[in-house]
Amino acid sequence: MLGQLPPYGYGPACRFCGSVPAAEATVRGHQGFLVIMRFLKLHGPFCRRCGIAAHREMTAKSLWQGWWGIASAIINPITMLINIPQRMKINRLAEPIPGAPGQPMDPGRPVFLRPAILGLLLPVLGLGLLVVSGESDPEFADIGECVHVSGSDSNPDVSVVGCGDADADYKIIGRLTGSTAYKKCERYPGFEAAYTEEYDSTKYTLCLGSNRAE
Questions:
Q1: Which tens digit of pLDDT belongs to each residue from 155-164?
Q2: Which of 8, 70, 85, 108 has the fewest beta carbons under 10 Å from its own?
Q3: Same domain, yes or no, for 162 and 206?
Q4: How far apart are the first and last CA of the chain?
Q5: Long-range Cβ contact pairs of 34-41 (< 8 A, separation 24 or more)
Q6: Inside any domain, residue 65
Q7: Which residues contact 15 (CB under 8 A, 6 or more apart)?
């Protein structure tokens, strides 16, 4: 059975259910898989209900699947921001007029009431891990901070710790940026040991003095 034609003057009909009024819009999503990524796209026209349903579903997928890669972590939020004006266009539509060939989609629960909203924690956790690792990385340590040294003399493992920590072996009394000439540390009073690091174009030396009470 053929469905009814849209009332005259209502413009395009929804491509999913045939309802009017409808608006031209494109809802986008993103999936990241380490070095591989997919750009998702769903074209209208959408009626209000089908458009909201499509946007919520695409956003929910992106919240879970869009962060798994360095590039994807940047592209995913941009993709969701691009969807905002499209969603606003859909929101301005009136409710579908009854009598369409198909049934408008069920929009379902708002995204913030779905388990997918927990996907927002992924970039937050990732940023937190970077901050924590940066705080303990000797490359970013400065004079006055303390370090714990483990491992061997030929392969030391140095991490930044609080100076009140029981594992705080040394205090940084000098720093030589762009140099591994550790003998220059002898100019610092209380100098006992040096830690040098060199990789790619980065090299530095930490001049260390004891943090232990005499």
A1: 788 888 888 8
A2: 8
A3: yes
A4: 95
A5: 34/68, 34/69, 35/69, 36/69, 37/69, 37/71, 37/72, 37/75, 39/79
A6: yes
A7: 22, 43, 44, 45, 46
